[in-house]
Amino acid sequence: SNAYYPLPPASWPDLDVTGHEDWTAFIETATPARLFFATTKSERPHWEFRFTPGDYLVFGNESGGLPPSFYEAHKDNLYTIPMPGEHARSHNLASAVAVIAHEALRQFTMA
């Protein structure tokens, strides 16, 4: 199943959080111009994506990754955080978000 779990209401005053019932509701409501998908099933390093303000970063859950249908539907926007060696495991979700968000912000400030 491609279960989608909306975010709970945030208690952070400086964070604007919006939950959606499912992926379709997110697409219809947010109308993202571009989506970036983080996955271990890509060869393209995340720094090759040219981030622009308004891009949406999409991460799967820690145990299963992205829904299987996303790999074909969004194949042009799949990126990875390169890991050393063939036996290296992937980063946990929080670390992956931090690495990719940092790269996006770095590109914004260096542009």
From the spread of the alpha carbons, the general shape counts as globular
Q: What structural class should be given to the helix and strand makeup?
A: alpha/beta
Mean pLDDT: 85
Q: Helix fraction?
A: 25-40%
Secondary structure tally: strands: 3
Order of helices and strands: HEEHEH
Largest sheet: 3 strands, parallel
Structural summary, described in words:
The protein is of the alpha/beta class and 111 residues long. The chain is 29% helix and 9% strand. It is built from three helices and three strands, in the order H-E-E-H-E-H. It has helices at 23-30, 68-73, 93-110, and strands at 35-38, 56-59, 78-79. The chain has a three-stranded parallel sheet, covered by helices on one side. The N and C termini lie far apart (40 Å). The mean pLDDT is 85.
Q: What's the layout of helices and strands?
A:
Blueprint: H1 23-30, E1 35-38, E2 56-59, H2 68-73, E3 78-79, H3 93-110
Parallel strand pairs: 1-2, 1-3
Which characteristics define this entry?
111 residues, alpha/beta, three-stranded parallel β-sheet, 3 helices, 3 strands, 29% helix, 9% strand
Give a quick summary of the entry.
Helix content is 29%, strand content 9%. The chain has 111 residues and is α/β, with parallel strands linked by helices. It has a three-stranded parallel β-sheet, with helices on one face.
